[in-house]
Design a protein that fits this description.
The protein is of the alpha+beta class. It has ten helices and 13 strands.
Length: 324
């Protein structure tokens, strides 16, 4: 089935804390698909989602959902069950990437450096009774195990901030990741899959006010400086790009993804996390890196769309279709 004649549903919104960003991503993607001549319709994912797929006769799905319910394998599994090919990473890769503890364990096992840390479950105060937790020193980073856009994230510099940071993280997830704060530069590398080897786009350095790339720093215009390509030594640039591709491959990602790093003064990179549905607003980091590589926003959108076509041809794709 050629994409040019298929009905493409752009899945946006959803019910996660990242709903507003997802709406912006999805709307930008929808406009690009229309400019390219595709038959695309926006679908705000809600309780009537399956009915919308049926009523709008959707044949392919462009996943523009961020956070739980859209980036964690949930929507991907549902789409596979109803037989609709979709963009981006599959169920397993999405679920692993979204859960920071699982992703870190996998990367650490394969020799990719990640910040040392532990997990504190809500209501389990054993590990929370000793501050900072064993093996860590101030400052530490506390964040939900499965959340995005820095929701619930705190940098804890002293014991008096500890309990409040845990409560903040536990508002979003029963598991709070506590890990060493890595002093250094904030670097992100986007990876774009295709028919050949994944392509690492130019690295971006993020210089946020106060050194903390929180929600306000991400989404309030003018608060943060972005340097693309990142002014890193050539050896370090190659290293983070190679690590981004390796992370992408180890998790089994498809389509576009973005790997976030902290790089120390000595040029040692630590992988913080991988995002399998990166922001696609016209000022997001993925389109910024793509533009530097000579890939327009519309071309980027089309390349991501093609990951749905490849999924349809994948022999592992579940072909059992359920009537919706």
């Amino acid at each position: 089935m050629p994409l040019t004649t298929a009905r493409i549903g752009v899945l946006l919104g959803g019910q996660s804390a990242e709903r507003e960003i997802s709406l912006k991503t999805g709307q930008a993607v929808h406009r690009a698909l229309l400019r390219l001549g595709y038959d695309a319709v926006p679908i705000d994912v809600d309780a009537l989602f399956l009915q919308q797929l049926r009523d709008k006769k959707v044949e392919f799905a462009f996943v523009a959902l961020h956070g739980p319910g859209g980036e964690d394998g949930t929507i991907q599994g549902l789409l596979e069950m109803v037989g609709i090919p979709y963009t981006g990473s599959g169920v397993r890769a999405s679920a692993i990437a979204m859960h920071k503890v699982t992703a870190k364990d996998l990367l650490d096992y394969h020799g990719i450096r990640v910040p040392p840390g532990t997990v504190v479950r809500s209501g389990h105060r054993g590990k929370a009774s000793r501050v900072p937790p064993a093996g860590l020193k101030w400052p530490v980073v506390v964040k939900p195990a499965a959340q995005g856009s820095t929701y619930g994230v705190s940098i804890v510099r002293q014991a008096s901030e500890w309990q409040a940071a845990l409560r903040h993280a536990h508002k979003y997830d029963q598991e709070a990741v506590v890990e060493a704060y890595i002093a250094g530069r904030e670097i992100t590398v986007s990876v774009l899959g295709g028919s050949s080897e994944p392509l690492a786009l130019p690295a971006i350095e993020i210089r946020a006010p106060g050194g903390f790339f929180d929600y306000a720093a991400k989404y309030e215009k003018g608060r943060t400086t972005y340097l693309c390509p990142a002014p890193l030594p050539a050896k370090v640039s190659r290293l983070v790009e190679n690590l981004a591709v390796r992370t992408y491959q180890l998790l089994g990602c498809q389509g576009a993804a973005r790997v976030d790093f902290r790089v120390t003064e000595r040029g040692r990179p630590f992988v913080l996390e991988i995002n399998t549905v990166p922001g696609m607003t016209e000022t997001s980091l993925l389109p910024m890196a793509a533009a530097k590589a000579g890939i327009t926003y519309d071309s980027l959108t089309e390349r991501i769309l093609h990951s749905a076509l490849r999924r349809m041809k994948d022999t592992e794709y579940r072909t059992m279709k359920i009537e919706v």
